[in-house]
Amino acid sequence: MVVVVVFVVVLMVVMVVVVFVVVFVVVVIVVVFVVVVIVVVFVVVEEEEEEEEEEEEEEEEKKKEEEEEEEEEEKEEEEEENTEEEEEEEEEEEEEEEEEEEEEEEEEEEGRN
């Protein structure tokens, strides 16, 4: 009789220990799963933020490039205008020099006559 009682008590203790171990394992599995899900979500959110930042940077770079191109075009236009003005001034100076030479030649001819 005592042996049966001891046997039953030992079985009950073993069952309780097994139940605690199973519960512990299930809890650990659930915690690990939750942690993995949280990490995955965090990584996905980080990647999305990085992609958004990269897109913003690309847009900024495009805007900068467009502004630089516009500035270059303006500079080229200004240079062209300056070149045209310089050419016109040179032509005017040449015409004036030619007129002066003609006047000098006329004066020399008049002086000879």
Automatic annotation (TrEMBL):
TM regions (residue ranges): 12-45
Keywords of the record: Membrane, Transmembrane, Transmembrane helix
Domain of life: Eukaryota
Start and end residues of each stretch annotated as Disordered: 47-113
Name the record gives this protein: Uncharacterized protein
